[in-house]
Write a structure and sequence with these properties.
The chain is α/β, with parallel strands linked by helices. It has four helices and seven strands; from the N terminus they run H-E-E-H-E-E-E-E-H-E-H. It has one domain: NADH:ubiquinone oxidoreductase Nqo5 subunit (Beta Polymerase, domain 2). It has a five-stranded mixed sheet with strand order 1-2-5-4-3. A two-stranded parallel sheet has the order 6-7.
Length: about 180
């Protein structure tokens, strides 16, 4: 294991003592609880042995039948060491929220908004958490509940009585 990965693991051991990790092709992935994320991300950015200066992406996975249902994936990079790091954070279906990282990396702003819009995971202390792609009134017409289109329980063919779907020739018998 190289010095960068060793430094990351040392920091994780101090800040998130019950963390898990995986290494594949020298690419380190940490799995931590949500309450450790903000402190660990801050230290990873500021520590001279890690200097993670870029948040490249945030996305989520909906495991649907697993507990916890969601998993946030943070894709980080250090220009100083030319290394990538992934942090995965399991998120409960019943309380889908976590601290925002916009105070550490400005790039978190749009990534968190996109993840909120598609999965409904709230980022606490985000400066402008609102819909990104979908209209603010994108709700179930029967229940009024907000809809999140990348969740596995979202209807595959869309919401009946909402926006009309484009023509589907295979279904409508128009394909020759």
């Amino acid at each position: 294991m190289d010095d960068f990965n060793s430094s990351v693991l040392s920091l994780a051991q101090i800040i998130a003592p019950d963390f898990e990790h995986k290494v594949h092709n020298d690419l380190l992935t940490l799995i931590i609880k949500p309450n450790y994320l903000l402190q660990l991300a801050t230290e990873l950015k500021e520590n001279e042995n890690t200097k993670i200066d870029m948040l490249l992406d945030i996305t989520a996975i909906d495991w649907y039948n697993k507990k916890p249902r969601f998993e946030l994936v943070y894709n980080l990079y250090t220009n100083k060491f030319k290394k990538r790091l992934f942090i995965k954070v399991p998120i409960s279906e019943y309380e889908p929220e976590i601290q925002s990282l916009t105070s550490i990396w400005e790039s978190a702003n749009w990534y968190e908004r996109e993840t909120y819009d598609m999965y409904g995971i709230k980022f606490l202390n985000h400066p402008n958490l609102r819909r990104f792609y979908m209209p603010e009134d994108f709700v179930d017409p029967h229940t009024g509940e907000p809809l999140y289109p990348l969740r596995k329980d979202f209807p595959l063919m869309g919401i009946p009585d909402s926006l009309p779907l484009p023509p589907y020739p295979e279904r409508d018998g128009e394909v020759r």
